[in-house]
Amino acid sequence: MKTSLLTGSTGGLGGEIAKILAKDGWNLILINRDKEKADKQIASLNKQYPKQDFHSYIANLIDLEDIRKASQEIAKDHTQINALYNIAGLLTDKRIMNPQNIEAHFALNSLAPYLLVQSLRSQLKAIATPESPSIIVNFSTAAVNSVKTLDTAKLINPDTIGGLLDAYAKTKTVLSIMACFLEDELSEDNVYIYSADPGATKTQMTSGGEGMPWFLRFLVPLLFGNADKQAQKLLDGVDRAIKEKQTAVFISNGKVKKNPAIAYDKQIQNDVRALMDSIAF
Hints:
This protein has 281 residues and is an alpha/beta fold. It is built from 10 helices and 8 strands. It has an 8-stranded mixed β-sheet, sandwiched between helices. Strand 7 (249-252) and strand 8 form a beta hairpin. Helix 3 (64-77) runs parallel beside helix 4 and helix 6 (167-188) crosses helix 10.
């Protein structure tokens, strides 16, 4: 039986991904911030699927120390992980600094996935094979296509936050950059990595998020898809990429595409990796 780790699993897309994977027979490791919601989710999963294993870890993934603590506990408790879904994310137009004085978009959207990937590399490669690779799926957004330049020195504390098309889009672009500079070394361990845009989805973030442009909020009920359908579409896109033996690609609305052009810039890859390594290790 396979095991998947999910962050941000108690609501929206994360909740739907967890439901689909559990129904398909996966054991789940769940990282969430709200213990009450997490306990309720675990109780529901245990009741529905008593022969599967579900484990909950509580962490505020904006705080790097919480991430380190959670990843250490998970590494101690679990020897193998077949899939890592970094779903938790932040979209706001307000400046929030984490306990390490790092702007929260970068901390949660970029650093948290990177820390979890690097901390759990041994678990991800434990039983991965060319025929059955382990996977990393970092949740992204179509807004990355608007990012043409990236000042890596400003990621820790940007001049502006700006909602959807500023700090949010830039820190999600980092995920595509990360996929590109990790591609070769992860492939050696039979681990595939993807950035995945679920498409326009009705969630708490899109319906009432402070970083969503006001005009888009009015369009959410009309043009945005339900979370369950978008979650299934995303998973189908991931399955398609795996079957085609593609890694370090961008999955958008269920379709396999190239990453944004900026992700292939070697200098930016080197700068982003150096910055994240200097913080993470």
